[in-house]
Amino acid sequence: MQSIDNQNKITIAVVMATYNGAQFIAQQLDSILKQKIDDFYINIYISDDSSIDDTWGIISAYESSCSNIKIVLNESDHGPANNFINALRLTNDEQYYIFADQDDVWFDTKVACLYRAAEQKMDNYKPGLVYCNAEVNDKTLSKCHKNLYESNYKQVNNFNDLLFMNGGVQGASMIINKKMKLEILSYRSYIYMHDQLATYLGVLHNNIFYIPNVLMNYRQHDNNVIGSNVGFINKFKKLITTPLLNEKSCQFIFGFCKTYSNLIPDRDFIKLKLVSNIENSGRKLLFMAIYNDIKINGSRMQLIIKIFLKTLFFKVN
Hints:
Layout: E1 10-18, H1 25-33, E2 40-48, H2 55-65, E3 69-73, H3 80-90, E4 96-100, E5 105-106, H4 110-121, E6 129-137, E7 143-147, E8 174-177, H5 178-186, H6 194-204, E9 208-219, H7 232-241, H8 247-259, H9 266-276, H10 282-291, H11 300-313
Parallel strand pairs: 1-2, 1-4, 2-3, 6-9
Antiparallel strand pairs: 4-8, 5-9, 6-7, 6-8
Helix pairs in contact: 8-9, 10-11
InterPro entries: Glyco_trans_2-like, Nucleotide-diphossugar_trans
Protein name: Glycosyltransferase
Domain Glycosyltransferase 2-like: 14-157
């Protein structure tokens, strides 16, 4: 897709999955096209999941006017994970790949900053990723006084950090290398979310890094609570009401363990297999947390409290 003038530049693929995103998609594409790109070139690949609004018409117009945009229409609803992976399949031989949500707005330095961090930190001989911070906004892009990752946040380092995450590092915050792309596309077990698979692979290969730079507006919709959990009461509600074990996440963990059993350390393998067993009762989970050093959000005490409260008042799910 790149022109002759850009053949000697580093190429980076922006990978986007769309579905009924007409309200915000143009603003997001404009922010990507405005990136500061002195020493690299951007190709944009978009997979649309049979939107029933004007999303297809909007992205078609962008494709017609921009030589670096390629789009494809899915004949049926693939779901977000497969839609992103379908977009990833469209890519060529770029050096790096960045996932893009359809409704965010990127700062004009996002790609450059992630690219520099990837060059400095990642081992490109094995699957890896770097992820950044973001400013959480409401649908009008008004700041919600919170970043995606708070100031005391510690980056994901091991499987213990992932056990009850019910997903991975936020996909639109990450840049992945070519080895990661190839590993994702060759993965044959069940995938819950594309960013969960990337996160687990980054941990598996000890090639995942966090930079605290705030590089985009992470837009939250009315039915999304991520940006509104501010204050003790809301955080407490989230602690006891959000699923401790997401069934689809557990299904993914089970398949991941089966696929990479020869690469996962024995102690981590045991923990992952325990967590992937969705039949675990609250008592079993409490025992696991106490005696196997299992944590949630990096804290074993938070996990023990959550299991205890949910065992008392709710069905552990």
